[in-house]
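Exercise 3.2. Students should predict the tertiary structure of the chain below and write it as structure tokens, then compare their answer with the key that follows.

Predict this chain's 3D structure.
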Amino acid sequence: MTMTKYELAVVISAKLDDDARTDALEKVKELVVRYGGEITNIDEWGKRRLAYEIQKMREGYYYFIQFDAASDTPAEIERRIRIMEPVIRYLCVKQDA
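Answer key:
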């Protein structure tokens, strides 16, 4: 099975305290691993202003998780992330080789 490189961008609510935010990030990382993804890098951009207001919030914490996985993995991860309360936005994209 060939592995493809993906990048998962996650924006976590700025209303959370540090522990809850770390917790949410850990859960996202666990999802990637649980569905066969292999995390290669995590870029933490910290607190940034959102392009537009989401759920009455103007800021969020940005994380970019690079991982290698099979082609069906991102859909599975997105299905789980969609229902996570602390995650206000996410996007999984395939990276060019």
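Discussion points: The chain has a mean pLDDT of 95. Strands lie at 4-13, 38-54, 57-69, 87-94.
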